[in-house]
Amino acid sequence: MASSKKLLPSDLPAFVEAKLKTWVQPGRHLTLALSGGADSVALLDILAQLRASLHFPLSAVHVNHQISPNAADWAEFCARLCAGYGIPFRAVRVDLKRQPGESLEELARDARHRVFAEQQANFIVLAQHLDDQAETLLLQLLRGAGAKGLSAMGELSTQHSALRTNFLRPLLDIPRRTILDYAALRGLHWVEDESNADISYDRNYLRHRVMPELGKRFPSYRETFARTSRNLAESMQLMDDLARLDCANAVANGNLRVEALRGLSGARARNLLRYWLAESGMPMPPAGRLENLLQQLCSARDDAQVRIALGDAAIRRYRGEVHIEKKTSAPL
Question: What is the phi/psi pair of residue 56, to 5°?
Fold first, then answer.
């Protein structure tokens, strides 16, 4: 089969089929995240062609963020589209309660992920592609992210949540131009989100102003960025492997031993603390906050009772161990 770099639009179903055979066993349920845009509409068309031969149940879910005045029309478009393919469909409305200083993009993403976690499926299939990967890497770089953030997206990834949602991205190696050409070849119709042209959003600014200029000077920047992301993902895997080894000595009954943290180098202690928080389902603090948290845990007097708020929970040091105190619902 042709490589993704030289892929013809007509080859796209065969490319996706090969990806699915790698990750999806027969009988596994796939739910497509269907926005109604060109990318997810094209992937819906491909998955609809493959479901019988690869023997997987297929459904779709649309998240209505209720931001655009056209949002209800997009949900209706997706419903009609899925009805035409005979694919079970669900539309979910979410309320984004934005506080001052909060990013609307991040709120919307978190809301989508909560909806995805509720789906009864083995995989949530996303239509993210090579251009999305490049944008994500550059955004994370500008935000000062570490190896985890810069490793961007993987073809198969698991969201750290109680339900461990599996995300599958079979188009991640495909440029968006190829996807648009496939949609045109198949005569597909889709909706356009008017907010995609709003360059007040960081991602849109990169997409419309920065990436075209990069492409003029560095035509292969998408593939180069993707290679960088894969290298960083490998580095992140090694860091996680090291953290798991350290956990064997540092974690008892789910709690982190302060003495074990103190016995590690600064970088290794930060890596262990970061891993332990992630595995405990905690939100990851920025690098500066993580460093401050580590200092308070390791530097306070042995008899001090340290308690530090983190998201909807608290990190507490008590009798030489670090505990997580999660909020519980008030009794009815």
Answer: -125, 135
